[in-house]
Structure formats: structure tokens, C-alpha cells
Amino acid sequence: MRNQTVLISGASVAGPALAYWLHRYGFAVTVVERARGLRSGGQAIDFKGRTQVTVLDRMGLRDDLEQRRTGTTDTVFVDANGNRLATMSGDFTGGDLEILRGDLAEIMYKHTAEHCEYLFGDSISALTEFADGVHVEFEHGPARTFDLVFGADGIHSRVRGLVFGPEKDFVEYLGHYYCIAGAAPANADTTGPKARATSYGHNAPGKLAISGGPKAQQFYMFASPELDYSRDDTAAQRRIIEQVFADVRWDVPQMLSELADFDDIYLDSLSRMRLTGGYTKGRVALVGDSAYGNTLAGFGSGLALIGAYVIAGELAVADGDHAVAFARYDEIMRSYAKIADNNNTGKFLAPKTALGIRVRNWFLGSWLFTLMAKYADKAANDIDLQDYPAMVRQREIN
């Protein structure tokens, strides 16, 4: 098989999923992750529909995921006095299987660490492609050469920036920011398909604050011009939330007073990828949010999982011919990734006007919301998923 040594940047969802499949098909896999270790907690992510669940089954992950899955969480929207206005069902937001991002990363790491090399606390600083490989320089470790490189490092992808161009050329800001603060409570009952919880949210025009539930202690979303801040500066992110929500009523003053107790605060923009020229270039390919991300649109984890499965499978059936495999991957995922193209969660969860909030609340109780939920379920399965493991076994027999 050609192109046997591969480097994957990123160890969240797409990276370990890709590492699993590439190792299974005989590739030598190295994963580099800028964090010093696996990131715990994070927001809950979900998988929707038979297609995504089928891939989890083929990876042998279902039992581990079922043990760590979160319970279904209904979100109740209330007014400033705590009176119930509308409910967003957790059956819509949670998909068929929901799990904390950190828990999923831990499970996938467990299934790949024995066979794949992980380099934590480092990142790619330069990439130079040659006819027969890619020379990779790292921030800390020695330079190495790989046959192929994959960017699975999120919507702010370092690999994409080095190979495809600056972020501003591909990432479209959607007008809102979101913030997750505080890990899930240690005593929260989040296991088992029958577990159900309730979180409570309050809107002011252009703002949403959610408290409670098993997935994170606090969640914020707000409309804003683009902000200039460091994603590594927790104190700056805390100040932004305190300033934006200083005039919001309900339980928000109490929530803000608790922010200082949280070390795990993450603030980022709602943004959408616009990679119109394809997800691959030469010997480099993008997978997951770095290629087709749309923040909080509801399909990110599923797209990452399917993308990793498809590109690894296409490489295997093409006997490592990256030109053939990458072209097929671009074609398949260009069609499937459309499920996340037009979603803008910020406009829905944090409408900019009082009228918009009332219309959203009405919509949640209408037949139109039910119709939207059915469309999302159908879209999640809108791919002719090949059985790559069976195809590879058949090739080996022949």
C-alpha cells in the first residue's frame, strides 16, 4: 500500500476517529495535539440517525458510549420572573446518542492509543510538500516527514491556515458568540437512555443565558460585532461575559457572580466554513470542523465522524492512492456536508429583538418545529454510506 505514514493534527473527535480507521486499514498513524493532554468536559455533542450510529457500531464504540452518554435535557425558556414561556425538547437537540465531548475523546483515545502515536503539547508550525511526502516542522519536537497530513484541528485549523490560506478567506462569522462555563456537576445523573434533565434559559434581545442541566453549569450566547480577544485568555473571556450580561435580569446576576469560580470557560464565535474549492490540496486533507464546520448547528460531531470514516475508507480501497481517494472524499462529503450549510443557531437561540424572541417561542410549540425536527433526522441519513471494512476484506481475499 502506498502512503503508509500519516500525521493527524487534532485529538478531539475527527482526529481520533480518523486515527482508528487508518490504523485498522494498515497505516502508521501519528496524532499531534496542542493541548497537554485530553481535554475533559466541554459541551455535549450528539450523533443523529442510523448512518452515524452505524459507523459507531462498526468502530465497536457503542457499549462504551452508552455507559457515558448524557441524559436527554429539555430547555425551558422563562421570562425575567421565572415564568415558563416555551420548551425546546431534548429529543430534538440531543439526537440518538449524546455525550460530553471530553468523554468521547477519552473513549476514542482508549481505542487508538495502543496502536497510534500521540504527541501532546505540540503543534504543527510549518508544512512543505514534496513529490513523495510532506516535511512537517513542529513548535517543540523535531521535524519529520510523512506521506500524508490531515487537519482535524477545528474551525480555527492551523493546518488549513498553512496550506489553504488565512482563516478570514474561509471562515464566515455568523454574528453571535457562545460561552460554556463550568463542567457538568459531579453528582449529575447523566447516564442511561432514560435519564432526563431540565435546564432553564432566559432571553433578552440578542442574548441568552442558560443555567442547570447535566452538560455544563452555565451557557451564554449573544449577538455582537466581531471581538478581538485571545481564546487562551480565560480572564478576558470572563470579563466579556460579565460586561455583555451585566444588565440582564432573571438569575443572571447570580450566574455572573459564580463565573470567578470556574477555570473551564470557553468563549468562541458562531462561524461557518466556506471551503468552496474542496477539502484537499496535494497530500493534505481537512476533516471535521476544519473542513465543513458550522458552530452549534447540530451536525458537527456527526459530520466529523462520517468524514473520518469516508476518507480513511476511500484511501484503503484505493490502496493508498491519495489522488484517487481525496477526489472521492471531496465529492462525497461536499454533498453530505450541505446538512449544516444554512443553519444559524444564534438567530434561533438569541434573537436580536423582543418580537423575534416571541416568534421563536411560538415556533417551538408549533407543528413547524416538529416538521423541522423530521427534516433534520432525514438530512442526517442523506448519504449512500459504503461498507468500507467489507470492501477492504473482499480486496484482501481477492
From TrEMBL:
<dbReference type="InterPro" id="IPR002938">
    <property type="entry name" value="FAD-bd"/>
</dbReference>
<dbReference type="Pfam" id="PF01494">
    <property type="entry name" value="FAD_binding_3"/>
</dbReference>
<dbReference type="InterPro" id="IPR036188">
    <property type="entry name" value="FAD/NAD-bd_sf"/>
</dbReference>
<protein>
    <submittedName>
        <fullName>FAD-dependent oxidoreductase</fullName>
    </submittedName>
</protein>
<feature type="domain" description="FAD-binding">
    <location>
        <begin position="5"/>
        <end position="317"/>
    </location>
</feature>
<dbReference type="GO" id="GO:0071949">
    <property type="term" value="F:FAD binding"/>
</dbReference>
<dbReference type="InterPro" id="IPR051704">
    <property type="entry name" value="FAD_aromatic-hydroxylase"/>
</dbReference>
